[in-house]
Amino acid sequence: QTVVTQEPSFSVSPGGTVTLTCGLSSGSVSGSHYPSWYQQTPGQAPRTLIYSTNSRSYGVPDRFSGSILGNKAALTITGAQADDECDYYCVLYMGSGIWVFGGGTKLTVL
Amino acid sequence: QVQLVQSGAEVKKPGASVKVSCKASGYSFSNYHLHWVRQAPGQGLEWVGTINPSGGITSSAQKFQGRVTMTRDTSTSTVYMDLSSLRSEDTAVYYCARRAFVQGVMIPFDYWGQGTLVTVSS
Predict the structure, then answer these.
(1) How confident is the model at residue A102, as a pLDDT?
(2) DSSP strand E in B14-91: where?
(3) A1/B contact by beta carbon, under 8 A
(4) Average model confidence (pLDDT) for chain B?
(5) Of A61, A76, B59, B116, which has the fewest beta carbons less than 10 angstroms from its beta carbon?
(6) Cβ atoms within 10 A of the Cβ of B106, count?
């Protein structure tokens, strides 16, 4: 079974830029996987940040951007702020109605 | 406005079944697929399955096949997830989430319910 991979943790300085990635245990991520990204703070439901690789959800600041970098989907946060410190998840479409989430990345801003 | 309101927390014994509901409002219920996603304590998100409210067609992750049943009631705009043969590892918050299309582009999980905690304990 294909596994979706994310960095377990990442650290960024306030005001800095960080790129989180979302890959496959076998193969490359492409637009046909409809990569999307979600932000989750403790005790809350996830919030959609990016869908279809690089489309920002309503109300999401342009500090957040999505792309394909090499063989992975990527979420880039520029001008990191303290309240960006939370968990980030990607999800990929595997075909036949099947979706798989990555394990999530815990982002620390310090 | 779009709302997905889920049923309350449940405590079940191992081997039992649980049925969680998700009532949709603020949009045309039959036109949007609904997913179920779960999150065990301190763990990541896990896709459980999806139902098309229009025809009731479902798809689910292989690990849940045979144990999960997703249904809908179009008269009340409600979808249900029934998980059977519960074990302690099924303890999790279960979310429903809507799939949408905006100008032909799919947003896989755009609106989320508030989550329902299911605890499996003897």
Answers:
(1) 98
(2) 18-25, 34-39, 45-51, 58-60, 68-73, 78-83
(3) yes
(4) 96
(5) A61
(6) 16
Share of chain B above pLDDT 90, in %: 92
**Secondary structure (DSSP) of A11-71:** EE-TT--EEEEEEESSS---GGG--EEEEE-TTS--EEEEETTTEEPTT--TTEEEEEETT
Contact A46/B115, CB-based, under 8 Å?
no
Q: What is the pLDDT of residues A22-66, one digit of tens each?
A: 999 999 999 999 999 999 999 999 999 999 999 999 999 999 999
Contact of B47 with chain A, judged by CB distance below 8 Å, is answered with yes
| CA–CA distance, B25 with B2 (Å, rounded to integer) | 6
B46 contact A CB<8A:
yes
Eight-state DSSP code of residue B88 = G
Alpha carbon distance B39, B83 (integer Å): 15
Cβ contact, residue pair A52, B112, below 8 Å? no
Nearest to B58 by CA among B78, B89, B29, B79: B79
